[in-house]
UniProtKB/TrEMBL annotation:
Role of this protein: ATP-gated nonselective transmembrane cation channel permeable to potassium, sodium and calcium. Activation by extracellular ATP induces a variety of cellular responses, such as excitatory postsynaptic responses in sensory neurons, neuromuscular junctions (NMJ) formation, hearing, perception of taste and peristalsis. In the inner ear, regulates sound transduction and auditory neurotransmission, outer hair cell electromotility, inner ear gap junctions, and K(+) recycling. Mediates synaptic transmission between neurons and from neurons to smooth muscle. Receptor for ATP that acts as a ligand-gated ion channel.
Pfam families documented for this protein: P2X_receptor (PF00864)
Residues of this chain annotated as glycosylated in UniProt: N187
Main location as per UniProt: membrane
Parts forming coiled coils: none
Gene that this polypeptide is encoded by: LOC113590048
Species assigned in the record: Electrophorus electricus (Electric eel)
Location relative to the cell: Cell membrane; Membrane
Membership in a protein family: Belongs to the P2X receptor family.
Organism lineage: Eukaryota, Metazoa, Chordata, Craniata, Vertebrata
GO MF terms, alphabetically ordered: ATP binding; extracellularly ATP-gated monoatomic cation channel activity; purinergic nucleotide receptor activity
Catalytic activity: Ca(2+)(in) = Ca(2+)(out)
InterPro entries in UniProt: P2X2_purnocptor, P2X_extracellular_dom_sf, P2X_purnocptor, P2X_receptor, P2X_RECEPTOR_CS
Protein name: P2X purinoceptor
């Protein structure tokens, strides 16, 4: 209710009033120590973990990568099937180029001079027979080598199997040679060319660094201690760094991982952004679970023999190298900086809440603290027919 100009004066006073919180200072060594300790822990977390370790003041981006490889090396073999033979990159890298991987042949079983004709199927559950009634003309199975003709013929002196139309003579299920035929593969080298990009920061780089030239590439081999910048890797060294024996792995083959890590702080000079290489075996080599071990593929070399198509079938064992590129880049940005500062200030405010709860719950003088911290006033009412003034104000209500 306004009286004369009093309403306007009250509104003016309210507009220019300033309110502040009441501060209760508790002079207690235990409470003060607890408060400072909590504040120190929060500050250590914000400065040490968020800002220094996790670089919370940076915006981040993940890497986009492309990889190409080039293998080099020569091996010499002398077998009864192939005789004396030189193996170069066109023979043992199959296929010549893959995406982010390459396969190197290290061992093989050869079935030479196959032609499409009729022969006895290898013994098995669906091929062993005693008479033609056990063989079904036109029947074929994905686990067998050809299409049955309906005849039961002699496979060996003591065993008969169904005749099939197939590439004959059939491949035998022999174990691979040990030691491996291409044991020299451990000295082959591979050039890994890796280009990376962080699109958010428009940053590009590759693992062939600016100071690397053609003469340097022609003689360098990666060594973590003496030559960590060389992008050419010896296959035997890759296996050794992964804790594997190359010759043992080469018998049945396997899968090896080449991991390239690009973690870059783009607030620092560009030259500080360098790749880190690590190596590990990816396939299972557990001796207690050695069914179908290693890695192998089949391929054939075709030729004409007296006008008739023939082939040499090769079951090749080798090591498949998978190249995996990881990375994250960070650069200063005001938005994450402000977000982390705000989160830190909120945590500092939480320290007072925790200390208040401990003081008002567990301290011996918690009742006294509670009375000092909280003040309670009655409800004076929003509307009243009378205005009560404190004594001594000199205000007298109008008649």
């Amino acid at each position: 209710m306004c009286c004369g100009g009093r309403c306007c004066v009250s509104m003016t006073q309210c507009f220019f009033d300033y309110s502040t919180s009441k501060v209760l200072v508790i002079r207690s060594k235990s409470v003060g120590t607890l408060n400072r300790f909590c504040q120190a822990v929060v500050l250590a977390y914000i400065i040490g973990y968020v800002c220094v370790l996790k670089k919370g003041y940076q915006d981040t981006d993940t890497v986009i990568s492309s990889v190409t490889t080039k293998v080099k090396g020569i091996a010499l073999t002398n077998t009864s099937d192939l005789g004396l033979r030189i193996w170069d990159v066109a023979d043992y890298v199959i296929p010549p180029q893959e995406e982010n991987s390459f396969f190197v042949l290290t061992n093989l079983n050869i079935t030479p001079n196959q032609t499409q004709t009729r022969c006895a199927e290898n013994p098995g559950p669906g091929s062993t027979c005693t008479s033609g009634r056990d063989c079904k003309r036109g029947f074929h199975d994905s686990r067998q080598n050809g299409v049955q003709t309906g005849r039961c013929i002699q496979f060996s002196v003591t065993e008969k199997t169904c005749e099939v139309l197939a590439w004959c003579p059939l491949e035998k299920g022999n174990d691979p040679p040990d030691p491996p035929l291409l044991a020299e593969a451990m000295n082959f080298t591979v050039l890994i060319k890796n280009s990376i990009r962080y699109p958010k920061f428009n940053f590009n780089k590759r693992n062939i660094l600016p100071h690397v030239n053609s003469s340097y590439l022609s003689q360098c081999v990666f060594n973590r201690t003496t030559d960590p910048d060389c992008p050419i890797f010896r296959l035997g060294d890759i296996a050794s760094e992964a804790g594997e024996d190359f010759q043992t792995m080469a018998v049945h083959g396997g899968v090896m991982g080449v991991q390239i890590l690009w973690d870059c702080n783009l607030d620092m000079p560009e030259s500080w952004c360098m790749p880190t290489y690590t190596f590990r075996r990816l396939d299972n080599k557990d001796p207690d679970n050695n069914v179908a071990p290693g890695y192998n593929i089949r391929f054939a070399k075709y030729y004409k023999n007296g006008g008739k198509e023939s082939r040499n079938l090769v079951k090749g064992y080798g090591i498949r190298f998978e190249i995996m590129v990881f990375g994250k880049a960070g650069k200063f940005n005001i938005v994450p900086t402000l977000l982390n500062i705000g989160a830190g200030l909120a945590l500092l405010g939480l320290v007072n809440v925790v200390c208040d709860w401990i003081v008002l719950t567990f301290m011996r003088n918690r009742q006294q603290y509670s009375q000092e911290k909280y003040a309670y006033v009655g409800d004076f009412g929003l509307l009243s027919n009378e205005v009560t003034e404190p004594s001594g104000t000199g205000f007298v209500e109008d008649d």
